[in-house]
Input
Amino acid sequence: MATNNKVIALPFAGGNKYSFNGIEKHVPKKIDWITLELPGRGSRFKESLLDRIDHMVDDLLSQMIPHIHDENYIIYGHSLGTLLGYELAKKITEKKMNKPMALFFTGRGAPGFNRFDNKKSILPSPLFWEEVNKIGGLPKEILECKELLDLYYPIMISDFKAIEDYDYLPMEVPFTFPIHIFMGKDEIGIGNEKTSLSGMKAWQTETSDNCTFELLEGDHFFIFKHAESIAKRISQIAMGSFSIY
Output
């Protein structure tokens, strides 16, 4: 018998299991929020970093399995977490496991869309952080602290390498559950490593169910500026009460 509805959350590049605390605190207690954590950060800091999406997905799936046997759940991912959530949903579907009720993704265009026009994972630290700053790729409190930058550099390099080396393989049959996409208005545009509207709208091809889109004020980390609104929407979707009408 299913327990509380669940949110399985997947952080952005450099993120850990505490990355969504600001959003999670606005989620009702009747929803179980579980943020997964990749090796090499947070409580798994001593483990070796992963720099391939498929290896990351295998690790995350092994963490998910105890939580999704017969429960109602959604997958939430931001940025890198969006890509990981998409590939996790593919693997769950392929393995005929209990599928999510929906996917809720923020901060990234469709999986076939590449936002970066140059490889950042090969850059030395100063140049790398300049590039990350341009795209709003880390919260400002981290970018303004040298000690944190030194700590995060190898983590971010491995995460960016995973994104840059990712090969998109379209599904023969799209998902049969809805996908909900939120992005910051400042992320949308042409050139300068922006996400085009077509790059965002291409998510529609990944599901035969509804695919919704919404833009909120802000840059790549708009989710923290709108933490309460994001939490409300996630909660509605997790409880099956979200309507597009």
